[in-house]
């Protein structure tokens, strides 16, 4: 595995692209928006400057053309919005353009790789690789196997994760997988506590960091992920797993107000 394509140049996509290039892979990043590609290019440049590896930037190509991104890749990682219809649409196109041996991976945090892979001619080569934000710092990749995912595909993805310096865990598919399922519950309960007046945003986050040794509070983390992304995750889990995942009303209200967290400048915290 030498060539990796990343589809979607948002927060997760650019982090994955940087991690792959830093590990020595040849990388191509695709997005339909030139502005997103420009943001990705700037992010990657800053990361390489910090690492003192500016020459590695040459291993990344940027394009708006999906066919160009897919046709020569060994592994294609989709990192678009958490919308099932969009992911399926992207996978159908990737299946047409990618070479027969290519692995198609989705970076979904909650959704079914079985359902996504079933829309292609290669379900045995479809899998979910759930990276965590910020990708360069977070050591885990959840490797989620669909119903037909082959052992060869799983082993190839574990080898890929090892090449990135990450630890991989194998998770059998179920809505929310392992980390997102637990994290969404914790975050939703923290939001409910804010709504009920149990404590301030700052004090609830501090309590989780100092009392349970979490490196980041659940509300701070939700802002980092993006409250719109978190709401989509919660809605999917509510639909598939039931009442305990009903999104907190304050989350719905903030998203309607355009308070999306760090990326919009305001969420549970304000950002300059």
UniProtKB/TrEMBL annotation:
Organism: Metabacillus idriensis
Binding positions for NAD(+) per the UniProt entry: 8-13, 31, 82, 87, 109, 133, 263
Protein name (database record): 3-hydroxyacyl-CoA dehydrogenase
Domain annotation 3-hydroxyacyl-CoA dehydrogenase C-terminal: ranges: 176-271
Limits of the 3-hydroxyacyl-CoA dehydrogenase NAD binding domain: 3-173
Pathway(s) of this molecule: Lipid metabolism; butanoate metabolism
Keyword tags: NAD, Oxidoreductase
Molecular function, one GO term: oxidoreductase activity, acting on the CH-OH group of donors, NAD or NADP as acceptor
A single BP term in Gene Ontology: fatty acid metabolic process
Homology family: Belongs to the 3-hydroxyacyl-CoA dehydrogenase family.
Pfam families tied to this protein: 3HCDH, 3HCDH_N
